[in-house]
Amino acid sequence: QVQLVESGGGFVQAGGSLTLSCTASGSIFSINNMGWHRQPPGKQRELVAQITSGDNTNYADSVKGRFTISRDNAKNTVYLQMNSLKPEDTAVYYCHAEISPGSYAPGWYDYWGQGTQVTVSS
Predict the structure, then answer these.
(1) Three-class secondary structure assignment of 25-43
(2) Residues 85-121 as b or e (16 or more Cβ within 10 Å = b)
(3) Do residues 93 and 9 lie in contact, with contact meaning Cβ atoms separated by under 8 Å?
(4) Taking the C-alpha atoms of 108, 113, 114 and 118 in order, what is their torsion angle to the nearest 10 degrees?
C-alpha cells in the first residue's frame, strides 16, 4: 500500500529549468536510499541521481553539474532540480525509494513512482 506520487514534469525550452517532486505515503517504517531514473523514448531506463539517508549523492555523468537531488525526510519527499536542460534530457522520469514497511517484513523493498514526462525542445 506504499505509493510514490510524482509531480513537476512538463515542457521546457533548451536551457530552461524544471523541478520534480516525489512524495511517499502509506505504510512506511523507514526510507533508505531515494533516487530518480529516466527512460528516453525507445531506450532503457537509466539512473539519473541518487541520495542516501545520510544525504550522500551521486549523479549520472550526463547530468552532473546541471541537476541537483535533495530530500526532506519530514515530508518523505525527494526532489530533482534540473537546470540547463537539453533536448537529450527528454524522457519519462521515475522516482524510486527503498522502503521498509516495518518489523513484520524486515529488509528493504523497491518502490517506483508513476512517471512524469519531461520534454525539452530545441
Answers:
(1) ECCCCEEEEEEEEEECCCC
(2) beeebbbbbbbbbbbbbeeeeeeeeebebebbebebe
(3) yes
(4) -140
The closest alpha carbon to 22, from 95, 85, 98, 92, belongs to 95
How far is Cα 52 from Cα 6, in angstroms, rounded to an integer?
19
DSSP, collapsed to helix, strand or coil, labels residue 10 as strand
Q: Give 98's pLDDT tier (boundaries 50, 70, 90).
A: very high
What percent of the chain lies above the pLDDT cut of 70? 99
pLDDT tens column, 49-89? 999 999 999 999 999 999 999 999 999 999 999 999 999 99
Q: Are strands 57-59 and 116-121 parallel, antiparallel or unpaired?
A: unpaired
How far is 31 from 50, CA to CA, in rounded Å?
A: 13
Residue type, 79: Y
Cα angle for residues 17, 43, 92 (degrees, 5° grid): 35
